[in-house]
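quick one, 418 residues, struct below
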Amino acid sequence: MTSQRRLVDAPWLTTGPAGRVLALLNGDGEEARAVGGAVRNALMGLAVGEIDIATTALPEEVVRRAKAAGFKVVPTGIEHGTVTLVVEGSPVEVTTLREDVETFGRKAKVMFGRDWQRDAERRDFTMNGLSVSIDGVVHDHVGGLPDVDAKRVRFIGDPDRRIAEDYLRILRFFRIHAAYGEGAPDREGYLASIRGREGIAGLSAERIRMELLKLLVAPGAYAATEAMVDAGLMLRILGGVTYLGPLSKMIGIEHSLGLAPSAVLRLGALGVAVTEDAKRLTQRLRLTNEENKALDSMGHRWWRLKGMDEARARQRLYRLGTARYRNRMLLGWARAGRDADAEGWAHLFALPDRWTPPVFPLKAADFMARGIAKGPALGHVLALAEDAWMANDFPMEVDVITVIADQTIARFKHDHRL
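---
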């Protein structure tokens, strides 16, 4: 049974790129509506981002109308009924209504249709199965309105069947719950996720990474992650131990410092105790090079940061740079336990705000002038001198630097019997 409600404040339905597309595709026997996340967010009073359009018009008719209106057309998935229209420089995805003919996983055989209810029934969760017409009327064919009101994430129809169609829906269930749900996850969906968890092994690492990183920055990230651990899902995703305590601590630290949620920091807290963990996560999730480097640096002897004085902290900042210094500092803080000196950790975290690492003042030419020839020996002497300079708290006075250079040469010659 279909129920309705009206959106009272949705200017994007009649203005901007989405409004222009809706106006274009309505009329002459065809209907178009905004569907999915945009409708859900509008009903929840949240920011509306990407707006997807569904229509009764066949793809060829969508293309014909778009070209006549002067819109750029990109056939992103036209064989499946999807075209992207570029309007005012913004992409708007338009998909013809569909209904299943045969279902076998993600490669279900579908045909184009004109039935809004059957199209809605193909979607994953009730709150994502809503649509809104250009007049602001929200159409609910799957029971999504009461679930939006209750902030309850629930599969459309049989959860086991929905999951078997695409096992990524297990991760999406927890991710959407973390972002828009309240309380415990829907029990039927939770139990179906447990029953279907072996199917996670068949998912691509890239798809898992995308959902997991989105989940980790959602408002309910900790509770959703804890539920996934209890369901035996995280071991299949991360392939190792998960650390809920450090994750909770990392989230609290971000809040206390006024930092934006960071998926990489939270993933590090959840899964990295040593650098080998970072390598495993990179392989299992196909992390980007930057994500891999960040996790690897965070996991490198973070335990040495505990109780570190400011002089030693300046050396770490000089070696690591601000971003990696702070990331490692945050992981050390998150793993320091309940008795951690929060004020002391925060003070060291803020070091880049009050001290800028200077540039090492000695150059290769300074040592060549002292008789060191080009080659490995020169690089070794430079490294020795830099270590000595750091140990002396980064002096910049010429006489002190001269002494460091001379003492480094003397030490090098002594060690090598030159």
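The chain has a mean pLDDT of 94.
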